Amino acid sequence: MYEKKIEAAHPGLVVMVLDDSGSMADALPGTTDAKFQWVERYTGIILKELLARSTVPVDDTTFRVKPRYYTAFVVYGARPVRWPVGATDVRDIETSVRDFAAADPTSGAANTLGLGGRLGGTDALAAFEMAHGIVEQALQGERFRDSFPPIVFHLSDGMSQSDAEPVAQRMATLETSDGGVLVVNALIGTTTSLAYTDPNDFPGYTTDQEAGPDPDSRRMFRMSSASPDTISDNLRSDGIFPSLRDGARLYFDVRTKEMLKHVIGTVGSGGSRANR
Length: 276
Known about the structure:
By secondary structure, the protein is of the alpha/beta class. Helices cover 28% and strands 17% of the residues.
């Protein structure tokens, strides 16, 4: 299980669930940038990496993008909305990158999701219900049925007036022939009890005590899938998280600025070798 390579014939699905509630307008501790800016920054990194994995040379000067990855975005605060506005289906990676790079109709800025911490309260439950529906619908078709399982990335500071944990657990019961959906949570914050200094000695979270003491952080930990052996082995062998412990969950924080850049190594069972 979790051994399929991601390729055009068996593409991967990545669903991004992004917190844009009022608290995301606050600065990330230790920085001067708002939390939503970090979400947009890391989203851009993830899209760029997926595009690179999907781009192949035609000749010495020409390249083309294969539909190896499809994406969908749920942005939420008091209620969830799809990005871009009007999206009703999953989109191939080339289209998603083009949407991200296009100028925002409100601000005129490019390379943005239009976040700003403007969506009021935080209903993570409603956001995960929407993401569950996206994944469930996608798996009813032929495209992803025999692919590496979909990955749901949740980027949030953890604060929520509702509890998405039951839906995250239900999401993990959806599956392809290669395994169940993987839920990855990234805490846009640094308040955990886990001791490490950088990705090289990051051991991974194995207990909610390590994710605490904050109850919101503990909940995000419990919402996260256990890392399959194939992913853990590749994260170690690729040197992304060489000290990762067996049994660690797919839960991360942003204590180091490069952390979420490395988290994209969870996309696909083959790590950086996923598309050989």
